[in-house]
Design brief:
This protein is of the alpha/beta class. The protein is built from ten helices and ten strands. The structure holds adenosine-5'-diphosphate and magnesium ion (MG). The site of magnesium ion has 4 residues, from helix 1.
Length: about 250
C-alpha cells in the first residue's frame, strides 16, 4: 500500500520538557488512523506539527514524498483539512462563512463555493437553512458538522481531526460516529482522528496509533493492541476502559 505520510525522528521540546518524540510513523493512503492516548500524551502536538503550526526541533514529515514544511500556508490549508481541538469556529461568522473560509482565502469564486455547498451539505446532513446562523445559534452537534465541513470543503487529501466529537453528549456523539464512519469509507480519505476513547477508536479506526508521553508505544490494528500488546503500558491502557465498561453495567 502507498504511504501518504512519513514521519521521521520527529521531536519537539518546550524548555526541558519533551512534548513529542522521537516519533517515527508511516501512515497508509485511504486509511482512518486513530491517534489514541491519555490527555497530555502529545496527540494535539503531533497534529499541529504535521500541519506546520509548530516548529519542531528535529525530524521530517513527508506528505506523498514532499516536505510539508516547504508548502505555503494556503497550499497546506487546501491539501490538509483540520478540525482543531475544541472546534474553534469564528464566533462572528455564519456557518456558511465558517465552512467556506479556506476556499475563500484561496480565491474560489461564488459559483464554485455554491457548487461545493450543494455537494457537501448532504454529506454532512446539514440543513441549508442553518447556513445563515452563527455558532452560538447552533447545537453542539451542528457546530461540529460545520467544523467538519470546513475541514473537508476544499476536498483535501488528508483530514486531521482533533477530538472532533469530544464535547458532545453520548447520543449525538454515537450518531455522528456512525455518520463519520460511513463518510470516511465512502470518500476514501486518509484520516487521522484523535481520541482518548477506546470504543470510538475501535469503531472508527482501521489502525490505531497509541501514544504515551510524546511517543508512539504501538501502531497496529485494534486486535494487535489488545491481543499482542507491545508493552505493559498498552495492556494497562486497553484494560482501563474495559474495567470501566464492566463497572458501568
Ligand atoms: P494531548 O493532545 O495528547 O492531550 P498535547 O499535545 O496537547 O496533548 O500536549 C502534550 C504535552 O505538551 C502536554 O504536557 C502539554 O502541556 C505540553 N505542551 C503543549 N503545548 C505546549 C506549549 N505551547 N508550551 C508548553 N507545553 C506545551
Ligand atoms: Mg489534545
Amino acid at each position: 500500500m502507498a504511504l501518504v505520510l512519513e514521519i521521521k525522528s520527529l521531536s519537539k521540546t518546550y524548555g526541558d520538557y519533551r512534548a513529542l518524540g522521537p516519533i517515527d510513523l508511516n501512515l497508509e493512503t485511504g486509511q482512518t488512523s486513530i491517534l489514541l492516548g491519555s490527555s497530555g500524551s502529545g496527540k494535539s502536538t503531533l497534529l499541529r506539527a504535521i500541519l506546520g503550526l509548530i516548529k519542531t526541533d528535529e525530524g521530517s514529515i513527508l506528505f506523498n514524498g514532499a516536505a510539508v514544511a516547504e508548502w505555503s500556508p494556503p497550499t497546506r490549508a487546501m491539501r490538509i483539512g483540520y478540525v482543531p481541538q475544541g472546534g474553534s469556529l469564528f464566533p462572528h461568522m455564519t456557518s456558511a462563512a465558517n465552512a467556506s473560509v479556506v476556499a475563500r482565502a484561496i480565491g474560489w469564486d461564488k459559483a464554485k463555493i455554491k457548487k461545493r455547498f450543494d455537494e457537501i451539505l448532504p454529506v454532512f446532513s446539514f440543513d441549508e437553512s442553518l447556513l445563515r446562523r452563527r455558532p452560538h445559534q447552533l447545537s453542539g452537534g451542528q457546530r461540529q458538522r460545520v467544523a467538519l465541513m470546513r475541514a473537508a470543503f476544499t476536498d483535501p487529501e488528508l483530514l486531521l481531526l482533533d477530538e472532533p466529537l469530544g464535547a458532545l453528549d453520548p447520543l449525538v456523539r454515537a450518531s455522528l460516529q456512525e455518520e463519520l464512519k460511513e463518510i470516511f469509507s465512502r470518500l476514501r480519505k486518509t484520516v487521522i482522528f484523535v481520541t482518548h476513547d477506546i470504543g470510538e477508536a475501535a469503531y472508527l479506526g482501521d489502525q490505531i496509533v497509541l501514544m504515551h508521553e510524546g511517543r508512539v508505544v504501538q501502531h497496529g490494528s485494534f486486535n494487535d493492541l489488545r491481543e499482542r500488546p507491545a508493552c505493559e503500558f498498552v495492556t494497562r491502557f486497553m484494560n482501563a476502559q474495559r474495567l470501566f465498561a464492566r463497572e458501568a453495567k
